[in-house]
Amino acid sequence: MARTLAEQVDPRQAALIVVDVQNDFCHPEGAAGKRGRDLSQIADMAAHLTHLLGEARRVGLPVVFIRTEHGPWTDSQSWLGRNKTDVQQRVPTCEEGTWGCEFYAVAPQPGERVVIKHRYSAFRGTDLDLILRARGIRTVLICGVATNVCVETSAREAYMHDYEVVFLGDCSAAYSQAEHDATLRNMAQYFGVVASEEEVCAAWAATAAAR
């Protein structure tokens, strides 16, 4: 039997995964902005995510930040070759140690985990699965940038690792509304629950009131 949203997001067995909310993906002066990407979804995403993080910390939900880093030790020819245009090839993204690699609008607090990844998935070549299982996590609340790339890929892999997935639509952003909406439809149909920041916070409040 499917569990309710309140059961899924219970802080005793859930964790929040924040994917790639970094300057190069979100800031107008970052790589995405320099490539001419539409950043119009970013401000709303950041506002919702900031509020969600405050509530998550208040209820004791474990928070894991995912940060993309790229460099000569991890950038294969096939990875670099996915960029098709000259502009994309000229604009590096999330190079290790650069401003573009730093978090945008949000940041981990002491005790919150940061997982470094080098590919779209937060699980690929990282210790994320070990971290979650060591904490007894059953559900991942997942959000970040871009909705249809790293967040979706990470959510798919979470589901394939047998975690329940709550995909936070308004705490995620893509570079077009069509791409964002397509991912939300796909997630809801095949991989988990799509919820808003308000719905998740309301579930926490209802659970607290019932105890």
Concise synopsis of the structure shown:
Helix 4 runs parallel beside helix 10 (197-210).
What do these coordinates show?
With about 210 residues, the protein is of the alpha/beta class. It contains 10 helices and 6 strands, in the order H-E-H-H-H-E-H-H-E-H-E-H-E-H-E-H. The protein has helices at about 5-10, 25, 30-35, 40-60, 75-80, 85-90, 130-135, 145-160, 175-190, 195-210; strands spanning about 15-20, 65-70, 115, 140-145, 165-175, 195. A 6-stranded parallel sheet has the order 3-2-1-4-5-6. The model has no long low-confidence stretch (mean pLDDT about 95).
Summary tags:
alpha/beta; 6-stranded parallel β-sheet; 6 strands
Please give the radius of gyration in angstroms.
17 Å
Which structural class do the helices and strands define? alpha/beta
Q: Compute the number of structural domains.
A: 1
Helix segment count? Answer: 10
**Biggest sheet statistics:** 6 strands, parallel
Order of helices and strands: HEHHHEHHEHEHEHEH
Number of strands: 6
**CATH superfamily descriptor:** Isochorismatase-like
Strand order of the main beta sheet, please? 3-2-1-4-5-6
Shape descriptor reads globular
CATH class: Alpha Beta
| N/C terminus separation | 23 Å
Q: What is the percent of helical residues?
A: 40-55%
Strand content: 15-25%
